[in-house]
Amino acid sequence: MDERKQRVLQAVVQDYIESAEPVGSRTIARRHDLGVSPATIRNEMADLEMLGYLEHIHTSSGRIPSSMGYRFYVDGLMQPKRLTDEEKEQIDLWYRARVKRIEEVFQETARLISHVTKNVALVLAPQMTKSAFRCLQFLPLDDRRSVAVLMTDAGFIENRIVAMPSGASFEDFQRMARVINDCLAGCTLDAIPKAAYRKIRAEISDETLYEAALDVIRRALDGTDGKKRLYLGGTREILSQPEFRDVERVKEILLMLEEEELLKEILSAHLGDGLRVTIGQENDYKGIQDCSIVTATYHLDGELLGTIAVLGPTRMEYGKAMSLLGYMNEHLSDVVRRLGWQG
Amino acid sequence: MDERKQRVLQAVVQDYIESAEPVGSRTIARRHDLGVSPATIRNEMADLEMLGYLEHIHTSSGRIPSSMGYRFYVDGLMQPKRLTDEEKEQIDLWYRARVKRIEEVFQETARLISHVTKNVALVLAPQMTKSAFRCLQFLPLDDRRSVAVLMTDAGFIENRIVAMPSGASFEDFQRMARVINDCLAGCTLDAIPKAAYRKIRAEISDETLYEAALDVIRRALDGTDGKKRLYLGGTREILSQPEFRDVERVKEILLMLEEEELLKEILSAHLGDGLRVTIGQENDYKGIQDCSIVTATYHLDGELLGTIAVLGPTRMEYGKAMSLLGYMNEHLSDVVRRLGWQG
DNA sequence: GTTAGCACTCATTCGCCCCGAGTGCCAACG
DNA sequence: CGTTGGCACTCGGGGCGAATGAGTGCTAAC
């Protein structure tokens, strides 16, 4: 593919991303300074179509890029846009103004991304169960119940009300906590070895108390896993995309966005690959083969990681999405740290 | 207004709610057994229009109810529908299956209501700051930080990481907690008297420690107030309403639904009135004068209360919405209690 | 290799007509 | 006097065809 073809392809993709209308040879000749006439561009476009980079809806309607065309554009033609200092400032401001509690980081990140890109944003929060047990403590609530507080090395904190079996005192509970803390020290939450349970069993002779201990561990863990991990943003924003002018189309995508498991799967598939773009038919899942996804994985101090993503029509501002995610990727952990999650 | 007019009005409202199309005299004669001819019904409808209960888009298109018409229907004509045992069973199942943690109750309630009514659901959670201070406890995290856990009488639990000033030991913090617990006992969180602060000041002589104490209290409180209190559900469901066939209309309502403060205001205005219906032009806020809101306030053991609401086009199944909210109203506190929030 | 010219293709828009649902009024009926 | 049937009138919506315009593909000339 020669230089000029590339420039034509670039022009087509850029114009189409901007206008959302099939673009014709004349338009390109007018708006881009290629130094050739529309007729020549027509010839080039016909060639590009032969090569699979452009598509025709029908004879006589401008061309639109194919998935392959977008791919070539993203890989080579697009000039990677960096965020300006001003934009970075804005992002920082957004966090300062809106995120008061660590739990809000993910939701607000999704909102921010969708707001900037005008597309759907997905944020997959790190799994608490992947981090290591630090300690379990009890606080007295009343004579029948106490509050179990579970902390992990990554700084997750969970609290939960547990009933105390009649006959057991708060002191019994505190002793129990010490045993559990000893036995589970350093265990990753989703992989507590059988041996640890045996050790607890050995330490706690009282049957009811042992049952209570198990219950506490179970309850402390189960909430953490069932906890919402996928945050969505921008289901409103996509309405401004011409692709979703028709309500049926909107319903379709919203229906899909409710399938949390499916989305998690899609995002998990991209885990660990840094910044990555999947375009149109490159998607495995059929329902979004007219959409593209840009994903980035972020790290929080070493082990823990999650994924942030932008989902939108193939006609997406890839440069913007990529630079934004790239920035978030680097700085999300800073934000989290500033908010006091992790030292 | 005589008996027959009422039956005609009832027929018009019911048919319109069902079909979303303006209803004509012939349709009513066919579908409702009023024992009179379409001509007679036409006359009655003309009268009802004079009286303000029905409206005409223009000559020769069936009638649709006015706000006043809906009001008359809701107040007198509608037969109040009770939930069947089966439906109640379903609701209970929903909660059992989906609500694992107390924090999810409100979001899931919103989802449930929107799912059943096919309209937007709003749930205003009770304010933590309206409940009374029970105790503040510290848990050690590492040598520089500890976790402050705040509990209130209503069973709210908040946790937050606080830095310990250098030089202060964990024991200092625990002493501080005891002082704070003494001084704030029984105070409502949003109305801590000046005297309480003076008392703390008097008890804690060390300047840095006092600052730290204030910071802890402030931080424990500020998160609780900033915490999300309004839960939305069903922004997808309303797409199936013919009123929102046009994307512009959808955008409009979604935009409004983002104005959290506005929504809180609207709901707060209905606080404490039990089950209440506001129809079309009865709404103060102009943006929803073609919508109706059904609200109900629920109580959680005495003091604490919040509001649940259904927001939809005036052509709403009032009976369904009201019976559902009525039920939720009575049983939400049961659900909460079962999940262990409050004894 | 590039360009101008020309015939051809569709999608869209507009006007037009017709149909059907519905009203409003009037006259007749019991 | 209330009820009914009949009839003229009114719109909205669907279907049809012509005009428009953006765009292509091809060919011949530069």
Strand content of chain A: 15-25%
Largest sheet of chain A: 5 strands, antiparallel
Structural class of chain A: alpha+beta
Largest interface: A-B, 41 and 40 residues
List keywords for this structure.
homodimer; 343 residues; alpha+beta; five-stranded antiparallel sheet; 10 strands; 18% strand; DNA-binding
Topology (SSEs and partners):
Two copies of one chain form a homodimer.
Chain A: H1 3-19, H2 25-31, H3 38-51, E1 54-56, E2 63-65, H4 67-77, H5 85-98, H6 104-117, E3 120-124, E4 133-140, E5 145-152, E6 157-163, H7 170-184, H8 194-203, H9 207-226, E7 230-233, H10 247-257, H11 260-269, E8 276-279, E9 291-300, E10 304-313, H12 318-338
Antiparallel strand pairs in A: 1-2, 3-7, 3-10, 4-5, 5-6, 8-9, 9-10
Helix pairs in contact in A: 1-3, 1-4, 2-3, 5-6, 6-12, 7-8
Chain A binds a DNA duplex (30 and 30 nucleotides) through helix 2 and helix 3.
Describe the structure.
The structure is a homodimer of 343-residue chains. In chain A, a hairpin with a 3-residue loop joins β9 (291-300) and β10. The first copy, chain A, is of the alpha+beta class and 343 residues long. Helices cover 48% and strands 18% of the residues of chain A. In chain A, the strands form three sheets. Chain A has a five-stranded antiparallel sheet, sandwiched between helices. In chain A, α1 packs across α3, α5 runs antiparallel to α6 and α6 (104-117) packs antiparallel against α12. The first copy, chain A, binds a DNA duplex (30 and 30 nucleotides) through α2 and α3.
